[in-house]
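Worked Example 4.2. Consider the chain below.
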Amino acid sequence: MNLLKNQLLYVYLNGSIHVSLAVFALTQMTFYFCGLPFDLFTSLMVFSGTLFSYNFIKYASLIRSVRFSISPSLKVIVGLSLLALLVGTYSFLQLHTKAQLVTLGLLFLSVLYAIPISKKIPNLRNLAGLKVYIVCFCWAVVTVVVPVINASQELNLDILIKCVQRFILVLVLIGIFEIVDLQHDSLSLKTLPQQLGITTTKWFLSFLLLPFYTLEFFKIGYHSIQAWNNLAIVTLTLFFIWFATPKRTKFYTLFWVESIPIIWWLIIVFQQGTLFTQ
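Applying the procedure from the previous section yields the following structure tokens:
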């Protein structure tokens, strides 16, 4: 029984299901912030696209190298990824043309992120210092811009602020990952803790939460309840920043840190009394 639980947990975390739920949760937050009704196809596309793209980036080269000698858990992950590709493709075809074009742009960026560009530049993932900002940009666009465009809404100041907030939040979460992964990351990646040290990185990440929080007050559609919700998320994130060390296990980041967007959404669910906007 314990072996089965461990295998299920492995597939859940390493099969990118949890991180896909985090991206899905941020998309639901956009529906809530913008007063948009729940969009099934956008939600499915975001979840499935995240799951497939993350697994493709992580496992494509591994599967090619070992061919058929892959573990049962990895076979399940491959199967889930292929299913996600089918669901994501179908959902993509249901989107409006503008949303499809933006999504294709993100797809192109994801391909460059995973596939070698040249002999000197293996892929964007290995470009020192650039990886983080690509991920932050993709999360911000796919969870804010795509849902808004597909709902035929204008990209106004509020949307820009939301994008900046998402960018900052993801940057902070990745910074926590980099602290925990410090012992394993190649020095060529030039991560924040490699360049600044652990303590300075923690202060820097904490400082970034200040604009994340204060930008809320500059929105045209400002709601006081959201200021309190954001304060709860800032407090929770600060906890994970200052308790992060290279001695932490991957579970600390893969589950707990990536749960922050999900918790943010669940706070709204609790307040609204429903999982999805009406």
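The chain has one domain: 2-272. The chain is about 75% helix and 0% strand. Compare this with Example 4.1 before moving on.
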